[in-house]
Every structure is written in structure tokens, then in C-alpha cells.
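Sequence only, no structure available. Ideas?
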Amino acid sequence: MQASQDASDGDCVVIGYTWDGKKLAGSSPVSWTRASRAASTGKSKISSGSTTSDSLSSGSSFVAAAVLSGPSTKAICTALKQVRKTCPQTFTIVHSPQVSRSARGRLDCFRAGARMLAHDDAAVEQGLRTIMRQFDAAASVPNPSGRVYSCPECGLAGLSEDALHLHFPLYHSMENTRAHDCPICDRRASEFRAFAVHLHNEHGPIEEREPAFPAFAAFSWVVCRRPSDGKLLLCHEPAAIAGGKPAYWFPAGRVDEGETFLMAGERETQEEAGIQANVKGVLLFKLEGGLVPRVVLYAEPVEDQTKEQEEGAAGGQRSAAVGTTACIPKSLPDFESCGAVWLDVSELDNLTERDYRGGGTAELYRAVASGELAPLPLDNPSYEALEEMVQRLTKDQDCLMDKWLAEIKRVWALLKEDNPPERLKME
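Reply:
I predicted one. C-alpha cells follow.
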């Protein structure tokens, strides 16, 4: 299953793949579907017992994936629309260093129908292997009920419970999906917040579900900057929580039971951006409603790599000198995010406020990039008191609001004494 990139200037090369990993002849979705109908004996290797879906061996479902490459965002977007119109169940991967490094180009490709933006050849291979796993799961995972399911959003059939758990965020986290009843437990859409969240946390592999939220809520946000070139790390939030599109945001999330803000920030950067990072300092302390603390942390990637090395990797020319992919962000979409990217601060000029999940995002990134907002040290008694408090209260299941408020007031007062007033925000 070899991906290739041979676009000429201004063109878009489109390569289609069948469900058994074979390349399809021609570069037109119309030619693919005609060929699939003609190949009536070409049943896919994924068919197995009760999990077989006949639709996978004919029509648009025959086209498992399409990899689109070339330097022109406009040409790629035009091709994406054609592929998605003709083959709506096809997993579309954009493989273009030019698009990958463009803040606006990435959003344009998602809007045109991209399901994955690949940073390098390895990411393309990962995407192709992962979509095939949907039917490995359907064929091999024990399924006592004997039931198989169709995706309620795109209709792809023949999925086991675990396969649907994999499929839905992989194909639809970047899309503004409709409300759906659950095909597995038959609960109505009105009974849960969002189908994607219900499916992730109530079905599929138990080890892949999110842990229960602590009663005490606290959140870490991370501004991660790469020292070698000053680029900033941005994630594409799932559309369901970002206004119906994969808007840009920080690696961020809730502090789990027994974690510190620092631990949560480093975990979220790994989960949402695919980057192992070390938190180096604190940028802002926020307090929402007098009860919910949010800390904005400053971090740097653990293993840095130069601009030249990254560009070599993006073009599939990875040299022995690189030796690591630690700084190449996540490409494969999942429940946590639709991917991530290192961007030069100048790229933010091509975005509008609506391109971010929340307000003030670009201003915060610019302040860090310019040095105007420098990180405060972690070895500060008031910050250590804050970390001790959140680690303790996230383990507290008694929900004693008065006790929480007293603790927060005490630590907030310490933070006010030790830190510049502009670094503390009451919201």
C-alpha cells in the first residue's frame, strides 16, 4: 500500500484505493465507480461472514480511500468536492506540504471534504492502515449479539461495535454531523449531548473511553512553541465542539482525577496534537465564576528539530540526521482532535476570529511569539499551592462547594501576592 506524490505545478493528483489496498486505475472518481461495477467478481478481502456488506464491493463504497496531492489548494479543493460528491463514503487524505503549512489552506481543504491532512508519507500510510482496521475489527472481534451496524452519518455498512467506535470520529470529527439515535443501544438522540460523545464513552473498547470527570472542574490550556523556528502548535478541534467546523485551538482539556495542571497540559498536548512536550512556565491564571480555575501554560517540544528537517520529512525525504518524528504533529483524526500543525505566527494573519474555537486565541499566540507575554516560573510557592490544591480537589467526591470556594479563595490570594496583576483574570 504505497502512497505516491507526483503532482506537477498547479495540478492535483488523485490516487484511489480499494478496500484490499490496491490502487485504482485512473484519477477520476467516475472512472473508479465504473471500474468497480464492471469488476463484479472483485469482492473485497474484508468480507467475512455476517460482517460482510455487499455495498463495499460495488459502487462508490468500493473506493476505500483517495489520496490527493499537489501544490495548489484550489486544485485540491476542486478535486475533493468531486470525490466526496461521487464517493461520499471514501476516506479523503490530502498530502501536500504546501497545504499542510498553510493555516487558511488547511481549513479550506476540510471545508471542501478532506477527512485527513497528512504531514508526510508515514501519515498517509497510517491513514490507509487505519481505515482498513475497521473491517479487521468487524471480522475478528467477538460479537456475541451477531449484530453489525451502519454509520448513521454516512451509511458505511458492515461495522462491528468496535469498528463503529473507530469509524465515526475518524470520518466525521471534522464535519458538522446531524443528531443521531444510537444504533447500538437504541437510545434516542434527545437522551445524550452528542452522538460522538455517547458512542466514544458508552460503546467500543473500554480502555479507549474517557475516564469519569472529577466533580471538581479545572482546565489546562497549552501554548506550545518550538524554539528552533518560533513556530506555534495549533490543534483542529472536533467540529462538534467548535461551531460545526474543525476550528483552531490550543491543546487543552479538563484536569483528570489526581492530576496537576502541568500533568494535564502535557497529556492533552500528546493526545490532541501528537507532540510530547515539557511545560516550562505559566502564562495566565483564569478563574471562571469564582469556582473553575483554568491555567494557560507555556510548553516546548521534548525533541526539537530544525525547519530543514521538518520540510524534508514532509516531502518524504526523511534523512538519517532527523532520527525522530517527535516534532511532527498528529495527522490522523480521532475523538480528541482532527489533527494539529506547527504554524508561523504570520500565518495567523490569514485567519479570522471565526476560525478559532474561542475569542482571543490569536492575540495570545502573538503575545507569546513576540515575547510580550513571557512565561512565569513554575518554582513559585503560590503556583505550587495551586497544583497541590487541584490534585487534591479532583480526588474529592464529596462535592462540598463551600470547602472548594474557601480553598480557591485562599490560593487565589496567594497567586495575587506572587504574580503581576495582569496575569490573573476573573471571568
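Residues 121-140 form the longest helix (20 residues).
Hope that gets you unstuck.
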